Structures are given as C-alpha cells and as structure tokens.
Amino acid sequence: MLNSLPKFWMFLLIPLLGFINPGPLPSDNSLKGAWGLVEVNGEEVGRQAQTVRIFSNTYTMATTYDQENKTFISSRGGPYSLEGKKVSLTIDYHTIDTAQVGQTYSYKISINADDILTVKGANPAGEKINQKWRRLDNGDAPLAGAWQITQRMGRDGAMREITPGVRKTVKILSGTRFQWTAMNTETKEFLGCGGGAYTFENGVYTENIEFFSRDSSRVGMSLSFEGKVEGDDWHHSGKSSLGRPIQEVWSRD
User: Fold this and answer.
1) Which end of the chain has less neighbouring CB within 10 Å, N or C?
2) Residue 228: which domain range?
C-alpha cells in the first residue's frame, strides 16, 4: 500500500530534522492545539488523505489517514519540549519505522500572523521538504492536554488502578480534536490508535471517530460518555464502540 502513495506522503512517515526558521515565533505560542497539513513542496495537499497533528503542553501525535475510504495510513508521536524557536521531540511510537522509537530530534519552526506553520529542511533520508500547516484550534478547552489512563472498571464492577509504565495508553486532546494511542516503549510496539473530532458540553463528552487503526468499521461512529474533570483527573463512563460498559479515570500528564 505504501508504494502506491504519492511521494510527498512518504515524507510524513519519519520525523523531520534541521528545520530552517523563516521568521519569529510568537511569544505566546507553545504549539498547543491542532494543525492540519495543507502544503508539501509547494503542492497543495489533496483532500483524500489528510494529516492532523495535535500538540499538548508536553506531548504530540500526528496521524495520516483517509477518512472517506476508512483507511489508516501512519502515526507517530512522543513527548516534546519547546525552547524559544527550538523543538525537541522524543519518539515514543512510530507505525512505520520502529527504529526511531527512543530517538530525540531537534528542529526549528516558524508561525506567521495567519497561524500558518512553515517547515523547511531535510528528513533523515536527506530528502528536502517544505511543509505548511494550518492551525485548526489553539488548544483552549477544559480537556485539552495529554492524559494517561490510571483507573479502569473491571468485569466485576470494581475500579482497578493502572500504573503507567513502558506499556501505556496516552490520550491527547486539543480544543476540537482527540487521539489515543496504545504502545510499549520498551519493545517499540504500536498497539493501536484512534481519533477524530470531539465535543464536551454539559458534562457529555462525544467522540466522532475519523480513524481507527485496528478496525476501520468504527470510522464514522459517534460515542458519548458522561464526563467531569476534578483537578487533574478526568472521569468518564458510558459504552464502548462494542457496546460494553466502561468507566475510566484519566490523569493529566
């Protein structure tokens, strides 16, 4: 399948190095929010496949998928830090190149007044790229951030503690977008991911699934849960896409 993709989509499968900074980074910008890829090497990105990247304060994920055809293409992510115009990203998972898991990359960025993120440089293969991303939201929402699951209801109805370790599930939300990814950073295994758009209104959290790596039939589903945030804990309960009751607690990373 990968060989049939246009060449510029292949550039998205590995992190980018040595970005050239064409302008100043706004002082109040922390990259928080969601971004959609709009241009690669001067060519407008087609509407069929899309790439969405979400930044919390500490974590980022990017996924390429074809929503219309319910096709998951690739995903990668990990913790990052922003210092001035320099971003350092450590890869927690990568669906195409597991050799990158654990590696840290540093690059420079620029965002203009129209909220267009311009990226120029070369990828690890030495191929030159020029990308533009458009801000989808600024990450201003009660649920915005990176979360790890810390409690889950068992089959007996009792809540069980979950201690995040090398095997973990991270959920990241912007103001309008969400993605979860299950991974094992020690074995470099990618265990699955899903994401799309969400709303959180009057205590009801609703996910509209746009991609799901393990089961494409779930694309297009909407799932609603009762939800509330208490300090750094997010409680939500409802039914899974398989109709099973769930009750979970996620803690802000």
Assistant:
1) N
2) 145-252
